[in-house]
Amino acid sequence: MLNYFNLNNTMFLINRLRKFVFALFIIVLLIGLFEALILSPEDYKQSDSVRIMYVHVPSAWISLGIFSLISVLSFGILIFKNKNFSLIAKSLAPSGLLFNIIALVTGSIWGRPTWGTWWAWDARITSMLLLAIFYLMYILSWRVTDDNDKAIKVSSIIAIIGLINVPIIKFSVDWWSTLHQPASVNLLKDTTIHSSMLVPLAIMTAAFALFSLLIFLMKYNTELIKIKNKGLDRL
Amino acid sequence: MYGKKVKLRAFFILLIFLSTALTIFLIIKALEENVVYFKSPTEIKNLSELDSKKIRVGGMVKKSSIKTNDTEINFVITDFKNDLLVSFKGSVPNLFEEGKGVVAEGFLKDRSYLKAVKILAKHDENYMPPEVNEALKGKK
After folding, report:
1. What is the percent of chain A where pLDDT is above 90?
2. What is the ipTM of this complex?
3. Which fold has domain B36-122?
4. Which of A53, A71, B91, B116 stands 20 to 30 A from B104 (CA)?
5. pTM value?
């Protein structure tokens, strides 16, 4: 566990970890892209346009995962008044928003040739857009006020309310008739993606997760520097 | 283990979360009609009155029902209980195919005929290489 009573010590560890994560990210991304673009087969119906899936699906998973994590941390922030949790949650948000936008944009690009439309106001796509708005509100809530204690409270409440949207996104395709197809990768039911396509999907997910971790470490480091500059040597 | 204040805060925040979740659930439940992206042919058949507004109908393209001429494409949307005839002028998306999912947006002329202004293909959750699809077909 990080020893956050000694900032210099923590920052030294983060910097070393950051280099390691960066190297690992590059390696996993290259393997993932090679698998996704060259080794994996084309789809029986969509032929090559199926390859957008290897960016679209991992981005959507990561953005949902990060938001859930921020929400869970926010419960901790409000209940236990843990300052470190609020730094972690704040540092997680940017990469979550980034992957949310990537999921929306790649979905749009994918939808045009396959469905025949750039955008549809169906439940899945609309709730995903709502998640992006929640991310924006969350990030802005840290900036609109100079009062740090207030920002912590407001942002945590936004994250907790936004958590309600997460199961709506997940189950929207089962609860209502949507243009978006149901989930292909399932824990309880059979997975309907052929194993040769599942491999690049898993590797790309790992690559994106590593990228999120990298951005998180950089943001977290910045937050620690800010605290140090304020002349505090502990949280 | 935890202080009284922490327990009180936990209870309070949980209560706020649950009540908001319940409120949103009830709102969505009430708006169910508008949350669905399209209606099925059966729902169209059971409509009490025909709306002149634009409407979306979804289902499967009935096998060997696609007929094309110079300007128009005609096909039947089915949910395997009821059918709905669709006519459309324009180009259809890549994944439009018989036996596959489709959503047609347009105006109802009567309970079994839709004049579409837009055709969307709805694809399923199956992804596989062509040879696996061939092998599966062979088994059936």
Report:
1. 64
2. 0.83
3. OB fold (Dihydrolipoamide Acetyltransferase, E2P) (2.40.50)
4. A53
5. 0.89
